Amino acid sequence: MATQKPQDYELAELPTELSAVPGCTTCLSLVVARQNARSDGDYSAVSDRNVELRGHQAGSH
Ligand SMILES: [Zn+2]
Question: CA 28, 33, 57 angle in degrees (round to 5)?
Answer without folding.
Answer: 45
